Amino acid sequence: MGSCIMRIIMFAVCAMWFLPDLVLAKHAGSTRHYKFDIKLQKVTRLCQSKNIVTVNGQFPGPRIIAREGDRVIIKVVNHVQNNITIHWHGIRQLRSGWADGPAYITQCPIQTGQSYLYNFTITGQRGTLFWHAHISWLRATVYGSLVILPKRGVPYPFPQPFKEVPIIFGEWWKADIETMINQAMQTGGAPNVSDAYTMNGLPGPLYNCSAKDTFRLKVKPGKTYLLRLINAALNDELFFSIANHTVTVVEVDAVYVKPFKINTLVITPGQTTNILLKTKSHSPNATFLMAARSYATGPAAFDNSTTAGILEYEHKSSVSNTKNRKPSVLKPALPMFNDTIFAMKFSKKLRSLASNKFPAKVPQTVNRRFFFTVGLGLIQCSRNQACPGPNNTMVAAAINNVSFVQPSTALLQAHFFGKSKGVYTTDFPANPPFKFNYTGTPPSNILVNSGTKVVVLPFNTRVELVLQDTSIIGAESHPLHLHGFNFYVVGQGFGNFDPKKDPANFNLVDPIERNTVGVPSGGWVAIRFHADNPGVWFMHCHLEVHTSWGLKMAWVVMDGKRPNQKLPPPPSDLPKC
């Protein structure tokens, strides 16, 4: 009997030793495994076929579903000629920066025939995020939704929906995208605008020969649907509306908000928005277009087309009179493409719940203040280049007049192993090199500098950052995304930021918390964040064309003193450059 008990004890001890994940699973969530095979797939849109880079041959890619507290392990295997990395957009990556994904920032890319295990735990987050390729312009086809459900037994802070539906917006080019951007970068010209927007990979009935390629949402009357909206487009902020329906915004960027009702919303690339759609009590004899089109503020050409899906009500078979009449198709009225006032009004409605269960932990005091100008400029081309700009220049994008040069080795490795020399410098400017009327008449010299520069922050620094748009070449809205953190949007406005007057109006009570914010066209936005996550964290415009032109930089957050405040060593399969 005693030996039997001893065997049971030994087995239990061995189980804890060899199967730590199973033991933890009871308390800390489950471990979820996914396999991403990067492969070419022939896809036809707008009556033209082409091979595109996909995950598992799917477009859009597979949905990842997890719960708050779960560990997620994704094996990515590269079967194509392109280098690849995947970014889990909006995941905090607490002490798991090696899994963040931006190429040459936290990792070298996964080369042809190689694989990499992305391994991270979802801590203190629940809601809608997404994943996408984070190298060159491959995210045009390599993207998918990432849904984080609350912990088991924890309800939403809004009515439980009848059904949940992800709607992911994208952009489609008839041409080969990598060829297009490579040519544009060599010549200094702007890349072609997209040929269509898509909704769950489908352009919809407003494009030529695309009626069959339309997303359809069939609904029952008198029910509440949670629509998880994701803007995975490369270069366009979007207005979105459903004809003859009002929706309630309940979450953005996987953060609950104080609910408010609207007819039309704005969503920038990199942002997510959860809305509740309460369907009409009776099935109407009509179908309703769900439409999205560009909100464009800059001087450049843009895709002025509209993607649409169809919202249709289920009809009971006993209702015969509706069969005889063809249902009318109703279209929503969307704002003008450059309606900046509408966009600002919408963003100012967003407020954190700031409840006991979901507090807004806004840094009330700050250690470091930064003022970053974001916008366009010109960069001098080399003598053997023939560039389209004046005096052999081409358009560049910059933060504080620094256009970021992508290194040839990953910044995080260089930082972790103390080998930053020749890779990056730590002299990224905290302010612009000179003051000017940022949103007024631009200065005569609009040449920018280039370099691989970072800001170094001690662990636990409380940061305030003002992002100021400039009118150089043209005022434009810039959706800025910060990796590794959420931040609080404490203030925003048009014109030039006034450091004496504007901070008095900052909202430090219930500001919206998110990971991507639109810097208003001809305006500014102020954010605060707590640098509690050691590693190297990319910050960039989520308009891919501006990122390609250099509108990006990185924050290096140093280790803290305690073991749980330090970045662990890299995994053994981290790709090499």
From TrEMBL:
Record-linked InterPro entries: Cu-oxidase-like_N, Cu-oxidase_2nd, Cu-oxidase_C, Cu-oxidase_fam, Cu_oxidase_CS, Cu_oxidase_Cu_BS, Cupredoxin, CuRO_1_LCC
Plastocyanin-like domain residues: 39-151, 164-315, 428-559
Cofactor(s) listed: Cu cation
Reactions catalysed: 4 hydroquinone + O2 = 4 benzosemiquinone + 2 H2O
Primary localization: secreted
A single GO BP: lignin catabolic process
Compartment(s): Secreted, Extracellular space, Apoplast
Entry's Gene Ontology cellular component terms: apoplast
Keywords tagged on the record: Apoplast, Copper, Glycoprotein, Lignin degradation, Metal-binding, Oxidoreductase, Repeat, Secreted, Signal
Domain of life: Eukaryota
Enzyme class: oxidoreductase
Entry's Gene Ontology molecular function annotations: copper ion binding; hydroquinone:oxygen oxidoreductase activity
Details of cofactor binding: Binds 4 Cu cations per monomer.
Signal peptide: 1-25
EC number: 1.10.3.2
Entries under NCBIfam families matching the protein: laccase (TIGR03389)
Function: Lignin degradation and detoxification of lignin-derived products.
Family: Belongs to the multicopper oxidase family.
Protein known as: Laccase
Organism encoding this protein: Vitis vinifera
Gene: LAC17_6
